[in-house]
Design goal:
4 helices, two-stranded antiparallel ribbon, membrane, single chain, transmembrane helix, transmembrane, rod-shaped, mainly alpha, 2 strands
Length: 76
């Protein structure tokens, strides 16, 4: 494939359009993660959704592995 000015311009336009779409539409596709202070972990932050899905596992990890390990397992 020869790199003619038309091919270069068409490729540059495609890259620019893709970058613009990614810039404007990517943030709307990202789901915001709601964080909360981890209970019993001195203010570490964990994902609220993960905690509400399985609080028993969080407290089991907190007792057996420690606060840092429990918070890391439930981080976003």
């Amino acid at each position: 494939m020869a790199l003619t000015p038309a091919v270069v311009l068409r490729t540059a336009a495609g890259v620019a359009a893709s970058a613009a779409c990614a810039y404007f539409f990517w943030p709307s596709a990202a789901v915001p993660v709601v964080m909360m202070k981890a209970p019993g972990a001195a203010g570490l932050l964990i994902s609220r959704a993960a905690f509400l899905a399985n609080p028993q596992l969080y407290f089991e990890l907190l007792r057996n592995a420690g606060a840092a390990a429990a918070a890391a397992a439930f981080a976003a």
